[in-house]
């Protein structure tokens, strides 16, 4: 009985984990804050960049840096106290040549006298979050560039892909800035002039081919009926070479990553219009944009799985990791009442899906970056929104998830309840049915549904990876559940019937 009540009352992905190397933590603040990008330092810490809005709902935001140890304890913070406008930190990369130095990508809107302008910057910072080199570019007076991705080549050259907003036509499109990190006057700026709504979703430089690849998602297209996901190839001087629509079309925004000298990855949802299934998958393409292989992760029941919001593909020495958002609410994102799960997919290098793990489910989680540490742990950072907070407020808090090389949190102080879920219940809230989603590594399980007093109401054998259970006879209310396989709890929580 006590265990059942505990399951009902605790939905704790936030167990104190100060004594462990793997953890899942949300960092509540009085401000609105998000984590966008993470790097490991040479002194075995994590530096995370993002933004902080001191007055949630306002435009009063600035770039923010956070340094934490490998147990998830915050060591220090550094806020871009920008007195003349607002700023944002978008991404971090290690210097390929200078140990203990990191490139910080961002933008700022400046007001100087009666002049307003937007600029991008690629600053160098050290382990103490101190800016050692300032590099500012642009100073556009009639447009705004919000940087999304950047590539650093040999500590001397950088390419930056941004979302570009023009005050003349109000269209959101992509732009690319090529800069010489050592000569600030040496830069090249490219943006399309055909006025379509597009946003960059990936940027990769293929050194073996001397080709810069931009992946974009388009709300409108110069080729009606074509897939909204497109690869644009540039030469090193940003001369456009060709525009391609790669095979196996993902029908939502994709994410891009280098696989090898000869291929790259795209990850995104694919919508099968015949079955109406929406599935997250990963595809590998040659450098000539020819499809080599594809794997998708699961069918859907009343849910959509989206890739993470930023860097969502990680290739390690043993595996390919793809992080996604399970139960993604397209219509109400990001202020939705539907809980999101962080879905971590583990694949072989041949793109065979080996395991899936689910974290969260008690709020809206949006992962932005995934990286590997020198100890072969996987770190995911992003933002969290609590739709059930009282008093209700539209604000984000940052989160960090750090798992081992199997995708698991280990050595937790609470041995009764797992922090990782290998089976989940959707939709939640629901009505006439619930569906049990089993991770790929499980072929059968048992669902037990309880009332609020801990009395067992229903036991159902689960024999497929997504199986519906009829709940029409149950009154509206809150029902704790647990899912077991092989005498082990693989999923638990509370299901709400409306």
Provide structural commentary.
By secondary structure, this protein is mainly beta. Among the domains are: 1-14 and 416-498, Immunoglobulin-like; 246-412, Beta Barrel (Lipocalin). Helix content is 2%, strand content 54%. It contains 1 helix and 37 strands. It has one helix at residues 2-9, and strands at 23-26, 32-40, 46-53, 61-68, 74-79, 85-94, 101-112, 115-126, 131-133, 136-140, 143-153, 157-166, 172-180, 187-190, 198-206, 211-218, 229-234, 240-244, 255-258, 263-272, 277-286, 291-296, 306-307, 313-315, 320-326, 341-347, 353-360, 364-372, 378-385, 397-403, 423-426, 433-438, 445-450, 456-462, 466-470, 477-485, 488-497. Strands 6, 7, 8, 9 and 10 form a 5-stranded antiparallel sheet that branches. A hairpin with a 4-residue loop joins strand 8 and strand 9. The longest helix has 8 residues, at 2-9. The chain is globular and about 70 Å long. Residues 1-19 have low confidence and may be disordered.
